From TrEMBL:
InterPro entries (UniProt xref): DNA-bd_dom_put_sf (IPR009061), MerR-type_HTH_dom (IPR000551), MerR_fam (IPR047057)
Originating organism: Aliirhizobium cellulosilyticum
Official protein name in the record: DNA-binding transcriptional MerR regulator
GO molecular function per UniProt: DNA binding; DNA-binding transcription factor activity
Pfam families: MerR_1 (PF13411)
Length: 178
């Protein structure tokens, strides 16, 4: 007899569901402060349904998309738990809504804010179109980011970031079909 979708899960049930050893889940609790299972007598862990969804998102980003722990921490800090959980479930509408609401909140950049402080997965500025043979010449005074001997402008970096997000989403969809 299966449990209700709203039922709490033990660490062994979650570990089996995610195909992970239990010690990995305990380790993740030390690295991701957002993972907070309820602990009962004797230290037994019980995971809420939203904890399980978050763990699925973290697992998906780490194992399927190749993110580092630090990268997932940054994504969680930037976009929140619901965004990471939506990535695992493929809920694009929720991801877009979270990004849109986050973009509205951060319309005025903070003093000292860097490019990495903004929402991941969407361009921060209007793409120049330089890679596709259309658009502006780039002489708008946009500062360039130097990478080795070449330089990439903010607009092109945003365009590349959006393309990467789209490619990762395509990969996830293809992996689901297989």
């Amino acid at each position: 007899m299966d449990k209700s979708p709203d039922a709490f899960r033990t660490i062994s049930e979650v570990a089996d569901d995610l195909d992970l050893p239990q010690h990995v889940l305990r380790f993740w609790e030390t690295r991701f402060t957002q993972i907070k299972p309820m602990k009962r007598g004797g230290g037994r862990r019980y995971y809420r349904p939203e904890d399980v969804e978050l763990l699925k998102g973290i697992r998906h980003l780490l194992y399927d998309h190749g993110y580092t722990i630090k990268g997932v921490q940054k994504l969680l800090k930037t976009n929140g738990n619901k965004f990471v959980a939506a990535i695992a479930s493929g809920d694009v509408a929720t991801m877009d809504a979270i990004i849109a609401s986050s973009s509205e909140k951060h319309a005025e950049p903070k003093v000292g804010a860097t490019e990495e402080d903004q929402v991941l997965g969407r361009p921060k500025v209007k793409p120049s179109g330089r890679f596709f043979g259309f658009g502006s010449s780039g002489d708008d005074g946009t500062p360039e980011v130097s990478i080795g001997k070449s330089s990439v402008g903010k607009e092109d970096r945003a365009l590349l970031q959006e393309a990467l997000f789209d490619l990762l989403e395509c990969k996830r969809l293809l992996d689901q079909v297989r």
